[in-house]
Specification:
homotetramer, five-stranded mixed beta sheet, disordered N terminus
Chain lengths: 456, 456, 456, 456
Amino acid sequence: MTSFFSDLIVAISERGRSFVDVHQVSPEPKDLQTIAKALLSQKGEASGIALASDFFSVYEDMDALELDAFFDILAKQFGPDLKSVNEIIADIGDTATVEAVLELHVKAEPQRQELFRRLNQAPQGTIKLVRLREELLKRLGKNPRLGEVDADLHHLFHSWFNRGFLVLKRITWSTPASVLEKIIKYEAVHEIASWEELRQRIEPTDRRCYAFFHPALAEEPLIFVEVALGKDIPDAIEPVIAPKREITKDRHARLATFYSISNCQQGLSGISFGSFLIKQVAQELLRELPQLEQFVTLSPVPGFLRWLRQLAQDNRGREPQAAPELPDEQLLVIEDLLAHGWPASEDQQQVLQDILVPLCAWYFLHAKDRHQKPYDPVARFHLGNGARLERINWLADHSAKSFGQSAGIMVNYLYDLDEIENNHEAFANEGMVRAASSISRMAKGSSSFQIVEKVS
Amino acid sequence: MTSFFSDLIVAISERGRSFVDVHQVSPEPKDLQTIAKALLSQKGEASGIALASDFFSVYEDMDALELDAFFDILAKQFGPDLKSVNEIIADIGDTATVEAVLELHVKAEPQRQELFRRLNQAPQGTIKLVRLREELLKRLGKNPRLGEVDADLHHLFHSWFNRGFLVLKRITWSTPASVLEKIIKYEAVHEIASWEELRQRIEPTDRRCYAFFHPALAEEPLIFVEVALGKDIPDAIEPVIAPKREITKDRHARLATFYSISNCQQGLSGISFGSFLIKQVAQELLRELPQLEQFVTLSPVPGFLRWLRQLAQDNRGREPQAAPELPDEQLLVIEDLLAHGWPASEDQQQVLQDILVPLCAWYFLHAKDRHQKPYDPVARFHLGNGARLERINWLADHSAKSFGQSAGIMVNYLYDLDEIENNHEAFANEGMVRAASSISRMAKGSSSFQIVEKVS
Amino acid sequence: MTSFFSDLIVAISERGRSFVDVHQVSPEPKDLQTIAKALLSQKGEASGIALASDFFSVYEDMDALELDAFFDILAKQFGPDLKSVNEIIADIGDTATVEAVLELHVKAEPQRQELFRRLNQAPQGTIKLVRLREELLKRLGKNPRLGEVDADLHHLFHSWFNRGFLVLKRITWSTPASVLEKIIKYEAVHEIASWEELRQRIEPTDRRCYAFFHPALAEEPLIFVEVALGKDIPDAIEPVIAPKREITKDRHARLATFYSISNCQQGLSGISFGSFLIKQVAQELLRELPQLEQFVTLSPVPGFLRWLRQLAQDNRGREPQAAPELPDEQLLVIEDLLAHGWPASEDQQQVLQDILVPLCAWYFLHAKDRHQKPYDPVARFHLGNGARLERINWLADHSAKSFGQSAGIMVNYLYDLDEIENNHEAFANEGMVRAASSISRMAKGSSSFQIVEKVS
Amino acid sequence: MTSFFSDLIVAISERGRSFVDVHQVSPEPKDLQTIAKALLSQKGEASGIALASDFFSVYEDMDALELDAFFDILAKQFGPDLKSVNEIIADIGDTATVEAVLELHVKAEPQRQELFRRLNQAPQGTIKLVRLREELLKRLGKNPRLGEVDADLHHLFHSWFNRGFLVLKRITWSTPASVLEKIIKYEAVHEIASWEELRQRIEPTDRRCYAFFHPALAEEPLIFVEVALGKDIPDAIEPVIAPKREITKDRHARLATFYSISNCQQGLSGISFGSFLIKQVAQELLRELPQLEQFVTLSPVPGFLRWLRQLAQDNRGREPQAAPELPDEQLLVIEDLLAHGWPASEDQQQVLQDILVPLCAWYFLHAKDRHQKPYDPVARFHLGNGARLERINWLADHSAKSFGQSAGIMVNYLYDLDEIENNHEAFANEGMVRAASSISRMAKGSSSFQIVEKVS
């Protein structure tokens, strides 16, 4: 309808190119600090695009040591105006008025924020800033002061990548190759090994892929989800991504399975898109296929084996409060698994299943990290979005990675659109984990192990 | 080339519509304060789009009194967390560390900022927030506390409407009518009375119109400029906008005249786009028509008569330091003009010209406002952009508005792309006004009046 | 989805412009005949675009007399190769074989057809050929040989404007002004007097407008239809196009009324789009608004008064077979109407209604043109499309045009998607006019006039 | 600018899909002949889209034998109306008038043409007709009557794929994957083995790829050309397509080499696009890179070895008129090459070069096919376009295919934009082959062989 507007994006990205054609980078060598200061000065107002462009030209030629030094300068010399802040505090006396606090807020803003806003004028400025943060994050460990710089970028991106500015787009075989190659590259859950495999994920009538884009990063998906349409909740990943499989007509599908969600931009870590994505894709699918009845995931349990290892150590350490407390014969089986890997015999596998599945149920309902959130990161994400844990699937992923992290288990989270909000609030406010009753029962323990109620 | 991306914008605007189809506004009546608090809570994370949508539904049904009350609540109840700030200040003691200042910065951020960011998720959220600020600005006079709210919106828009996110688009007769009607509506300098007049401004080969757009406000130009291509610097507006006039082939043009610049969104006042616009349009034109030699404006002098009235009063008051000091016979002529309007006789007009043109030169070079910036707002804009004052044109605009503000005078500012940066810096740092030497000479006074050097 | 392809059209139209930039029309004067012959020669293969471009440059500078002469040359010198055809016929003897007939077909093709195909290479070639036919059609009356030229253009356009190449687009307020102005210009049924009136036809939620476009004529609608969504079959046009009226939400509409259909290109006369248009728009609307129950028209009866005049003359001439045979008092009333126009008194209007409405029913069912098709051109169109006549509305259009052609009457044709095909076939094969039973009854006559069955 | 129009294409392709949604293929089995006849009847006018859609549903389910039978029916039962034609011929007598010939032309048109025009209404109708002709062409050999059907499709496609309707598009890495995969598939000259190789052909700044598209076949390139920008005329293909090579900035390029041209649609064989393509790409490149000085090709000589084999046989047969007449020692070397393939020793290769290169020059200038056109098909194409033969490059392509067809030789044709038209005419009218003087000299023979002037 409003196709006039469709050129806007092209214009954004081409602005860059055309500018570079006419702009000549100044001949004399410059250091980033000088350019950054110029950009923050009066000069920056008149020649912002040119200075921002120069900045990235120099930046992109720097080696790792130079980058270390530059980020350190960013932390130390482009922070807030301490002197002004101290003067205001001195004036405040006992109790700050609103006016004083607002003034404080303004003066306490690190100069970096305005610097980053001005750098955004460079051709492709936004993606360059995202990449800059990616570099910065790698250095957080060895230079803690960089956390201050990171906080500023996080704050800016939190504002710029506001949900209201994101665009959901379906990814198909008619999508530009330059975007598709990024889907291949960024797929983090179930690897895509070739263009042909990619095609199998997006072209059949029972497959969908959706991504969020930001207008200023047109060729860069921010996050994407892969969806399988079908009739039953899948209990294993192989049939879902098998190259030869029976294809369902989308009109006959009864449910949609989100079987892979991948973030694309490390420079945007901490800016959450996933929760929006799943809900909007669900709505999108419902509009297209109103007969859909259920939305589930098929998800790994990436923290399970790590937790199991800890549990075994705790039990072995005879800590009285180790939970759950495992009978010796179970403990031996688990230790054997942890030490020697997956058993070949079907009998032993059956023994493992009897032990691990109930433990896994317990793990989901009770195992917590140090913030008292679910220990499992994927569970944190989906439960935090308001999903509930629906089913635990034994031997659902035969990949080495899965055996190494999830003991081959995958689970289904169920997104019930009518319940999402309540679940989310119960989870956020009370730490309540919603799960199918069969899972809750299993987690209560069994003959095989004793549940010691330690966690609220 | 990258036309995939062209759908992004359409997707942004259609997101709104499709959402509204499936979302039902809750039946029970709600007040904005309740919704706003929910939006800032956990609930807001799960149901942000729905709550933001509800917010604007309620907001748009409110009458003027309810709006007054709501804005007041915004000011008083969604500010910074005073208690936390005071605690931090108490802890700081004599001198704040960087860490403390950064924490202060975070805690001192008014809750409104996050509220506005979350409201942006509503369908058409960005334009609705811009309109909300428009309403707010109308109330600033009677409720000074609203200035605090305005500061937050200004801060947000300063970040969101960053130059790096704006898109320059040429406006033509093939532009959607929904955009063109806004050009008609927002033209603030030389009114466009009909669609036929609009066509005369954009369709002939020697006319151009460019606007900045933001991806999230696709049908809403932010600012636009109208350009006439020609061979000589125009000295009057009528020939430029005459319906019947000889049309130049664009290939034969030697110069481009910016004869009208209009801001479109009152809700974005204080967010400056004009300086970018003129420079980018100049580059755009140069790329298309490399033979162009000059870029000038044809601009009104909207502060001149107001200043003249003040000058006459000052002179009449015999303030010794009135500048310039006018001879009595000139003072009488000016007072006659101010009291009785434009004289009919050509002789009298000639007398006026001899008096007013040198005064106007002085006005540009020396008359300042209370911030020691040029008294004339249009001069402030173009000189601040790095242009120089090139020529003063007598009887250049016969409209009543022009006689009432500018004494019928229009001027040309010259944008010399090689000089813009230096001019801007000299102006910003030293208040230096660049003008053609003929104007500087005139401003030095003449037999007709004495220049008293009072202003630096 | 496939937005890459969206540039194709832009590319078509821009090809023209860019070419013109680099192509210099040859300096020496040329006549069209020479250029046309060159275009048909070897030279034409190498330099077709340039020659076709030259052709239209010269063509567009010609005056009316030159055009007369040129079209005559087209007729006389660019026809089929008579000599070859005669030789083939001579060879054939008594009975032509398939091979001979196919060879005849090739040789009998007028050279004009290849000429026109090559002219299509010029920038904007297709629309220029359509305009050329428009000029040609104006001259058909005074130069019957031009019919041969016209037949070639008709044949070409029949192939080029094949339904498979047309694109249905909704016209909205976001459509480019360059297209909208053509809707204003080409509206042939109920005039659009201003841009504001246009907006009333396309922007409210209960109004739609759709047009067919051809990719090579991107800014030129071929035909368009205006639609009113509502709850009841309208019985008058004024409420439909009134500037102030109550607007229905499209979700609440139960039926769609096609109240205006206009062809746009005289140069495409004889190439039928209307039947496709109505059916496709009906499908389009059903997809968007599945609750729609009926599709009707609100149509004028433009042949009615002309026929009535003939009928009165026939009756007055006492032709025994005049049908219907009118009682004298009715004849007098009709003659009074034809001579003095619409009566002012309500009594007289009531008398008129009692006479004219049954006559109008008879007119629709029995009055034929010389091809034994319905006398009324609009009836021919809709009945030929498979619609049936549903209702006759008295005093449904108070415009002077309507009184002068249709006696103020409008009718509704009903498009029942399940019946269209049968109706069309019955009409095409047997001349069967489908009408509501109430109309059929009225047409059987009444106390007021005798039906003499003369027409099958 | 005119991006409204950009939706037209999308609309064309989506028309298909949406239609299929609502249209139900009739349940009873139908044969194509019945559907085709219905489509040509009155019924076809009312229900053309549905019937055309049914037609292809049935057609696409047919096996090879059914297709044989169906094409035979097309040939025999959908030809011209022989009876009418014979009647007209009988009436004509000795000499046909223009009127009679025009009537003959109409009646002699095979019914198939209207059938194909109506089939074009089906979703994706145009590409389906192109594919239908592809099937037909495969059967031409065994059923010569199909030539009549083919003539009709050729005539239609000649009109529909008129140059004026084609769109040139650059192919880049941002082009949809669905188009790019066709570039991989259709590349007929220098195979593209992977997506990575494709990227090397289109992404570097010194590479270009352009294709012609038709609006109704949006995802299907018709023909494409690959271009290398550089500084010198390349004398071998390997450096051009090497994965690792030094990349030139496009601004520094002095010449453009067309190193691969591939037709994509066998169903469009005989519809020539290549000549337009090269000229338009040259213009396109000149507009982007005005500094370009030369346009050349790097082309195979695919007929050379076939001709050489014939030449050897003729010489061995001691035909007195064999041309050129080869000395025995040369004949032996050639026979050895033909029998045993490429010699391994460098000495032998040197001997070969001394013999083959002058023979190749002779081949280009004098070897003709039975239509007296150049024997070499690639030479026919480029010389027919107005290029001249510029250089013969020894050992320019080491692929097995090249050794088997071209003896490893590649040549450069030069497109001199100022000379194209003259060259084309001289070639078309007089069979004149334009070649660099060095090649002409070589072709005059040497000590190594005698030229017997046999060909004009």
